[in-house]
Amino acid sequence: MKYAVGIDIGGTNTRVALIDENYKLVERIQFDTDVENPEVTLKKINDAIQLFDKEIVGIGVSCPGPLDLLHGVVLDTPNLKGGWRNYRIVEEMTKATGLPSFLENDANLAALAEAMVGHGKDLRYVQFLTVSTGLGSGLVIDKQIYQGAHGYANEIANMIMWKDGPSHGSIMPGGIEAISSGTAITARAKAAGLDVKHAGEVNDLAEAGNSKAKAIMEDAKDYLANTLAAIFALIDPEIFILGGSVALKIDGFVEDVEKRTQAKVYKGLGNLVKVVKSDLSEDSGLIGAACLAFNKTV
Fold first, then answer.
1. One fold for 3-108+282-297 and 120-277
2. Residues paired with 30 in a beta bridge
3. Nearest to residue 258, comparing CAs of 111, 129, 138, 116?
4. Are 67 and 74 in contact (CB under 8 A)?
5. First vs last Cα of the chain: how many Å apart?
6. pLDDT (tens digit, 9 = 90+) per residue, 234-266?
7. How high is the pLDDT of residue 79?
């Protein structure tokens, strides 16, 4: 039996998992991320890997972006500071562990997991989107992540869908993340005077007939459907798989987005648009990271 290591480096915690060639999670270790000093975190990662005591073929790493995927570098992510900026994580990970290491963003790795063991396992063209705190996307073709010419393919958060629309953080006005993400839904509701803590509560108010909440949820679903229809026109994926708290926890959200998307493509093609909920656990990123390592080394 061969094994790979999947690593998820977050702004709060780092998770290290041993995963076998059947993509089963065998063991997992979690610890605090040192957000200033990557060397401290790398030492903890290497210590964890040594405890696994198995034949490991390689390491897949998920790290907050923006990332230079072609050169394996963490650029300037808001959640990791100090020495993490412009950190050559692939080179340093390989040096520290003695194992070949590969870097990807979390949405790409979740997409790969979906293509290997999720709803897309029997398909060639698998499009994944996470609709949660942010809005991310990944495309997998023939079990390989599509990165594009510069490694920035499927960075759709800034896709401008609404002229002079809402914005937040680094998202430009009208970017889809500023309309359909959980953060955006909640922020727009609060700005409208609603007392809510998360997108689910906004949806509850909409279901109860609150006109402001209904308008916000209508925007979130309709502009997301516009985005999927645009992706369908360009990529023609066999399936759209939606993950993240908004997609998974709000009843009827995915089904509604599917119907809207089907109505926005050329007549006669709507039946080819399939939008489903992810059925993988929160470990999908770790599984995807291990899939990446297996794909690159075996």
1. yes
2. 15
3. 129
4. yes
5. 12
6. 999 999 999 999 999 999 999 999 999 999 999
7. 79
Cα 113 to Cα 143: distance, rounded to the nearest angstrom: 9
- CATH number of the structural domain 120-277: 3.30.420.40
Backbone angles phi, psi at 123, to 5 degrees: -120, 160
Domain limits, the chain: 3-108+282-297, 120-277
d(CA 128, CA 118): 11
Tell me the torsion sign for CA atoms 244, 133, 78, 37.
negative
Amino acid at 95: K
Alpha-carbon gap, residue 120 to 73, rounded angstroms: 29
Identify which of 261, 260, 248, 242 has the alpha carbon closest to the alpha carbon of residue 203. Answer: 248
Which tokens is 165 given?
A: 């629309």
> Which fold does the domain 3-108+282-297 belong to in CATH?
Nucleotidyltransferase; domain 5 (3.30.420)
Burial of residue 2 (CB within 10 Å: 0-12, 13-18, 19+) is: middle
The pLDDT of 27-47, averaged and rounded, is 96
* Cβ-based burial of 76 (10 A; exposed 0-12, middle 13-18, buried ≥19): exposed
DSSP structure class, residue 36: S
- CA-CA distance, 175 to 162, in Å (whole number)? 7
Length of the chain: 298
Q: Contact 60/293 with Cβ under 8 angstroms?
A: yes
H or E segment to which residue 189 belongs: helix 182-191
Q: Which two tokens stand for residue 33?
A: 């991320």
What are the pLDDT digits (tens) for 49-73? 999 989 999 999 998 778 999 999 9
pLDDT averaged over every residue in the chain: 95
Q: Which two tokens stand for residue 104?
A: 């990807």
